[in-house]
């Protein structure tokens, strides 16, 4: 009988892992990818959707009890060597991308960082970053970047590991003194096997950083 116990434990562990994976795929991933949104918000078109024929998409949202005009300045000043990303500054510093205008992520609207134009680069790190592809004041800011995954730099036509992605921030008024802030990432990539990176690595990290960002923007704008 004892000789069969390890096999029994192995089967039980395998069954538990399979059940956990199924639960994550069925319930966990959809929740991570659409945190804070209604079904309508998660599926409706947003500015910038046309930039990337997405294989992978997330849409997240937060309610803010101030007009969109008071949230917009916090979006305009985001970026490396700008107002930061309002997420986990210590983590940004660990990867060499945490140099911001006021040390950490801004806790105020910075007047000198309120100028942004189509085509401007909003850097992620010293290597550069996405460009402003859509700029609709108090309504939508969309960043677009085609990057080499091996160097984190801008991709060339000959690059083999490439991710083409957009990051949209949209403000929807819900009343005279309230709005919803939506953040959507769409990504296309090659080679196709890179799909394994999204559920196993990128999705959890992206979820933690972006939800922290949205909550911080909501809190700071409301102050």
Quick structural gist:
The chain has 223 residues and is of the alpha+beta class. The protein contains five helices and five strands.
Descriptive report:
- With 223 residues, the protein is of the alpha+beta class.
- The protein folds into two domains: 1-33; 36-222, START domain (Alpha-D-Glucose-1,6-Bisphosphate, Chain A, domain 4), CATH 3.30.530.20.
- Helix content is 34%, strand content 23%.
- It has helices spanning 5-33, 39-43, 68-76, 89-94, 197-222; strands at residues 56-64, 131-136, 140-148, 162-175, 178-190.
- Strands 1-5-4-3-2 form a five-stranded antiparallel β-sheet.
- Strand 2 (131-136) and strand 3 (140-148) form a beta hairpin.
- The mean pLDDT is 89.
| Biggest β-sheet description | 5 strands, antiparallel
CATH topology of the largest domain: Alpha-D-Glucose-1,6-Bisphosphate, Chain A, domain 4
What is the gyration radius calculated from CA atoms?
Answer: 20 Å
The secondary-structure class comes to: alpha+beta
Q: Which geometry do the CA atoms define?
A: globular
What topology, given as strand order, has the largest sheet?
1-5-4-3-2
Could you tell me the strand content as a percent range?
A: 15-25%
What is the CATH domain class of the largest domain?
Answer: Alpha Beta
Number of helices in the DSSP assignment:
5
List the SSEs and their pairings:
Blueprint: H1 5-33, H2 39-43, E1 56-64, H3 68-76, H4 89-94, E2 131-136, E3 140-148, E4 162-175, E5 178-190, H5 197-222
Helix pairs in contact: 3-5
């Amino acid at each position: 009988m004892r000789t069969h116990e390890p096999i029994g434990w192995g089967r039980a562990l395998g069954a538990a892992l399979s059940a956990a994976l199924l639960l994550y795929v069925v319930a966990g991933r959809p929740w991570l990818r659409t945190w804070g949104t209604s079904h309508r918000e998660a599926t409706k078109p947003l500015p910038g959707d046309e930039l990337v024929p997405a294989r992978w998409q997330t849409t997240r949202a937060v309610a803010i009890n101030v007009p969109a005009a008071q949230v917009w300045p916090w979006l305009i000043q985001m970026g490396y060597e700008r107002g930061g990303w309002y997420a986990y500054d210590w983590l940004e510093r660990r990867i060499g991308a945490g140099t911001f205008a006021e040390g950490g992520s801004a806790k105020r609207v910075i007047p000198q960082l309120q100028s942004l134009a189509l085509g401007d680069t909003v850097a992620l790190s010293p290597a550069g970053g996405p460009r402003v592809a859509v700029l609709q004041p108090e309504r939508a800011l969309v960043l677009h970047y085609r990057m080499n995954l091996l160097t984190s730099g801008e991709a060339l036509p000959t690059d083999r590991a490439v991710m083409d992605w957009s990051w949209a921030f949209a403000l929807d008024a819900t009343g005279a003194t309230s709005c919803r802030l939506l953040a959507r990432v769409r990504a296309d990539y090659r080679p196709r096997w890179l799909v394994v990176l999204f559920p196993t690595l990128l999705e959890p990290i992206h979820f933690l950083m972006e939800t922290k960002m949205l909550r911080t923007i909501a809190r700071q704008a409301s102050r």
